[in-house]
Amino acid sequence: MLRRMAQRHGATKSPATRRLFLAAGLLTWGVVGSTHAGDLLRAGPTSEALPWLAAFLVFGVAYFRNAAADDVGSVPLLALETLSALVVVATGRTGVDGALLAIVAAQAPELLSQRRAVLWVAAQSAALVGVYLCFHPLAGALIQGLIFFGFQGFTLASAIVMVREAQARRELARLHAQLQSTQMLLAAREREGERLRIARELHDSLGHHLTALSLNLEAAVYTAKDTPSAEHLRRAREAARTLLSEVRETVSALRDTPPPLRDSLRALVANTPGLTVHLDVPEDLEVASSEAAHSLIRCVQEVLTNTLRHARATQLWVRIESSEAGGVRVVTRDDGLGAEAPVPGAGLTGMRERFTRLGGDVAWRAEAGRGWELEAWLPATARGES
Predict the structure, then answer these.
(1) Is 23 domain-assigned?
(2) Which of 85, 145, 169, 293 fits 258 for a cystine, CB–CB 3.0-4.6 Å?
(3) What is the pLDDT of residues 34-71, one digit of tens each?
(4) Domain boundary among 171, 204, 229
């Protein structure tokens, strides 16, 4: 349950931020340890110093594993950090050991909701005062506790701001992807509407007159049989028939021309902050219709939106290829958190309905800690409803 809570509230840091955060925490940990280093070097690990040393090392290992984790870290490890830090304070008694709790406070907003993070810091601050009461008078314990409570409050507030900014960037990237997709599809629809208008004009106007011309020439050929002009009329009739056939082919091509899929997908996945998208689309890829192309674009858009919103991923791979049966296949995967029991939302359900209506299908699979994979398929004869 704690793990799912961390996945729900966490915000993945960028690699540069993660390295900086790890270095700052280890530096603070090292400064706290340096206050005892002289005594340990002179007297060695005495029986009185062993509990402090053990708790100090446990804190360092737990913090390193949490801060260097590829995902959002672990709440149980955070609890271990708090407990070991309190043991360090109780056994060290140097007046600076409480700084370890500030490191814990800096991690809490990434692993917990804001309210739970504040309660966590308040609880460990109260425990810190309780520890100080064991070897300080009440006034001294309260002063020491308030000092480190201030340090924790500062690091907690800074971490909350960092998490909110990370969440805001991911939400902005998601909205930007949706806007890009909507603009791209609107432009494609506008071009398609213009093609359809031209196709209707060719069919209704030029096609009508060519049909009338062909019929009149047919009648003229019949009337002028065995006259010197009959051969010329036959040639004119065949030219009119050829021209009418070419007009019909042009009208069909204008109606069925899908939007430029490869360029549209490249524009869709470009400029996604916090997420690197690896797009693999063959240059010679062909789809059956405009509706099929729009469905593929919507599929990639939904995957991109879900990855930005839920996956906590930094890498997304999208591959579109021709299937063995002659259709088109979309395969995506990310390096995010995955899910223990993936439940499709409205977006995935709508995507499956769209592909099913065109004769295809959509399938997905996910495991906790192993990302999310999706595979969608459209047949070679995929056509939208007329």
Answers:
(1) yes
(2) 293
(3) 877 766 666 666 667 788 889 999 999 999 988 887 65
(4) 171
DSSP string covering 319-352: EEEE-TTSSEEEEEEESS---SS----HHHHHHH
What is the amino acid identity at position 298?
A: R
CB 354 within 8 A of CB 345: no
Task: Look up the domain containing 60 and give its range.
Answer: 2-171
Query: Is residue 131 in some structural domain?
Result: yes
Say whether both 155 and 268 belong to one domain: no
Higher pLDDT, 316 or 167: 316
Condensed to tens digits (0 to 9), the pLDDT of residues 126-156 reads 999 998 888 888 888 888 888 888 989 999 9
| 376 secondary structure, DSSP code | E
Angstrom distance (rounded) from CA 6 to CA 322: 39
Distance, in Å, from the CA atom of 299 to the CA atom of 258, rounded to the nearest integer, reads: 16
Report the number of distinct structural domains present in the chain: 2
Number of Cβ within 10 Å of residue 61's Cβ equals 13
Per-residue buried b or exposed e for 5-29, using 16+ beta carbons within 10 Å of the residue's own CB = ebbebbbbbeeeeeeebbeebbebb
How far is 2 from 79, CA to CA, in rounded Å?
11
Tell me the CATH number at 289: 3.30.565.10
Domain end residue (candidates: 141, 171, 201): 171
Same domain, 6 and 139: yes
